[in-house]
């Protein structure tokens, strides 16, 4: 997808046009929605809402009705300043939910974790993907665990751990550094035995970047296309939207989120990690229709 002189145009997505999980295949012939399901007391916008398996299942069912394509379960907040959670605590939070989702819903599940043991247990319990916000950097055993489980993998760019990542957000070439870091993450995954068709990349909006950096990454997202992997974008309710719009309450950032989703579609992203699936799906499909012109139905 390019913003060419003559207007927005649909083009093939980076990569083969699909993304493989452990057993599932997600077609990327249109934008796809990853719904956020945080089993944490302290996530920045939905912390404490889905701590019981019943509450998590109810939220997942709601997202299914709204047309979600993939559910991303997380047991450790990554918001700036968040304190780390022990492996056992994270397992206790996410495993019952992953098991229940895989039993009750016909939807792929990804597990948002930087710990290989948590990833391995979730994949054994039925998760199709691992979503590692450290891009394989925090746990040297992660790439091997994903390969051994046969799972799909989302690698995201960050700098430093959540406790410290906003301490220094200066880059000499932000987009170049993000692209190079993601290239290394993909290479490490492939070297460990993860098939390229199972890997997608994510620039890590809000992770070790300031407001201007986040806006620049969105504006220049197309620069990641030459990695040859599908692009996942996670802007939902994030603080840079609050800063631009003067909106302190994360749950009041939906309009800003939808603007970034639409622009992300035009810039070539095919997967969108969002808290409110229904509106994001409509924004993404509308942007997609504009970009595709007469071919949008196909
Ligand atoms: N953002 C968050 C968490 N995981 N994973 C990917 N791949 N991309 C993202 O942008 C991303 C992510 C942060 O959002 P959230 O899960 O809502 O908050 P918290 O980390 O506080 O649980």
Full CATH superfamily name: Dihydropteroate synthase-like
At the first level of CATH, what is the class?
Answer: Alpha Beta
CATH topology tier name = TIM Barrel
Number of strand elements? 12
Supply Rg. Answer: 18 Å
Mean pLDDT, nearest integer?
A: 92
The unreliable regions are: none
Secondary structure layout:
Elements: E1 2-4, E2 7-9, E3 18-20, E4 25-27, E5 32-38, H1 53-65, E6 70-74, H2 87-104, E7 109-112, H3 116-124, E8 129-132, H4 142-149, E9 152-156, H5 174-192, E10 199-202, H6 211-219, E11 232-233, H7 239-245, H8 254-267, E12 271-274, H9 277-292
Parallel strand pairs: 5-6, 5-12, 6-7, 7-8, 8-9, 9-10, 11-12
Antiparallel strand pairs: 1-2, 3-4
The chain binds 6-hydroxymethylpterin-diphosphate (HH2).
Short recap of the structure:
By secondary structure, this protein is an alpha/beta fold. 38% of the residues lie in helices and 16% in strands.
Written overview of the protein:
There is one protein chain. With 298 residues, the protein is of the alpha/beta class. It has one domain (22-163, 174-295): Dihydropteroate synthase-like (TIM Barrel, Alpha-Beta Barrel), CATH 3.20.20. Helix content is 38%, strand content 16%. It has helices at 53-65, 87-104, 116-124, 142-149, 174-192, 211-219, 239-245, 254-267, 277-292; strands at residues 2-4, 7-9, 18-20, 25-27, 32-38, 70-74, 109-112, 129-132, 152-156, 199-202, 232-233, 271-274. The strands form three sheets. The chain has an eight-stranded parallel beta sheet with strand order 10-9-8-7-6-5-12-11. 6-hydroxymethylpterin-diphosphate is lined by residues 36, 38, 40, 43-45, 74, 77-79, 112, 131, 133, 154, 156, 202, 204-205, 232, 234, 273.
């Amino acid at each position: 997808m390019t913003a060419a002189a003559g207007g927005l145009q649909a083009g093939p997505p980076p990569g083969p046009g699909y993304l493989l999980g452990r057993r599932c295949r997600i077609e990327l012939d249109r934008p796809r929605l990853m719904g956020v399901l945080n089993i944490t007391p302290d996530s920045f916008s939905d912390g404490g809402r889905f701590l019981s398996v019943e509450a998590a299942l109810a939220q997942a069912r709601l997202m299914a009705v709204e047309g979600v394509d993939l559910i991303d379960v997380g047991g450790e907040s990554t918001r700036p300043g968040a304190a780390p959670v022990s492996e056992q605590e994270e397992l206790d939070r996410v495993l019952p939910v992953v098991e229940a989702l895989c039993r009750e819903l016909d939807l792929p599940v990804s597990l948002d974790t930087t710990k290989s043991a948590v990833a391995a247990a979730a994949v054994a319990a039925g998760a199709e993907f691992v979503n590692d916000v450290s891009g394989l950097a925090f746990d040297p055993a992660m790439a091997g665990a994903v390969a051994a489980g046969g799972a799909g993998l989302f690698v995201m760019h960050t700098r430093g751990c959540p406790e410290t990542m906003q301490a220094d957000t200066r880059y000499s070439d932000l987009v170049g550094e993000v692209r190079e870091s993601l290239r290394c993450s993909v290479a490490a995954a492939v070297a460990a035995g993860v098939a390229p068709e199972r890997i997608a990349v994510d620039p890590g909006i809000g992770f070790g970047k300031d407001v201007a950096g986040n806006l620049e990454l969105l504006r220049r997202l197309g620069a990641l296309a030459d990695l040859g992997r599908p692009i996942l974008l996670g802007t939902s309710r994030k603080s840079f939207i609050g800063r631009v719009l003067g909106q302190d309450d994360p749950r009041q950032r939906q309009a800003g989120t939808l603007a970034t989703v639409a622009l992300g579609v035009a810039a070539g992203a095919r997967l969108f990690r969002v808290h409110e699936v229904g509106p994001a799906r409509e924004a993404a499909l509308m942007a997609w229709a504009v970009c595709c012109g007469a071919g949008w139905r196909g």
